Amino acid sequence: MDDSDAGALVKAALQNDDKAARELVRQLYPLVARIVRAHRPRRTPEEDICQMIFIKVFQKLSQFSGNVPLEHWVSRVAVNTSLNQIGSEKARPEVRYADLSVEEQAVIENLATSSDELAPDQRFASRQLVEHLLAALKPVERLAIDLLYLQGRSVEEVRKITGWSAALVKVRAFRARQKMKQQLAKISAKEKQ
Predict the structure, then answer these.
(1) Are residues 43 and 70 in the same domain?
(2) pTM for this structure?
(3) Percent of all residues in the chain with a pLDDT value above 90, rounded to a whole number
(4) Where a domain ends, among 66, 91, 116?
């Protein structure tokens, strides 16, 4: 895009010219899509990120000084938006039904329909499901669940190992269980849709 064309389109878009705004999107979309593909967060679709980027571009268009080419300015907005989305996904990990294997999905369906003991072939899948749920927890919460429930240690043993008070061990385990239940409920709800 020529700098004079970009400047004219930016001025027109700032004057609420929809045609100029559409032309900016049309010309800049290949650049934005290429950046998003290179920095795309795992859970957010490419189209959603591109849309977020263009919203930010048009919100901040009045801040574009014209000292640098428009493509450079838009690239910076695109990279920052993509990296911020990746960071927010890391801060709030989530397990989705689609992320699970067929066997893990079968375990969820079995949990929803039956209170029977798991079949031997579903035990491995259930362990994998637990691993997915544990991955969404903070490290201290994972440690509490691992020591108390997976290793079968007592609260007193966990207290000695970690140096936490007995109350803190119980609170962390309780919060971790609640988060795991919420994740499982989200997965089950999406499976029913």
Answers:
(1) yes
(2) 0.48
(3) 9
(4) 91
- State whether the Cα torsion 125-128-130-133 is positive or negative: negative
Domain boundary residue, one of 91, 107, 123: 91
List, for residues 129-166, the tens digit of each pLDDT value. 777 787 778 888 888 888 887 778 888 888 888 888 98
Type of residue found at 91: A
Domain of 109 in residue numbering reads as 97-192
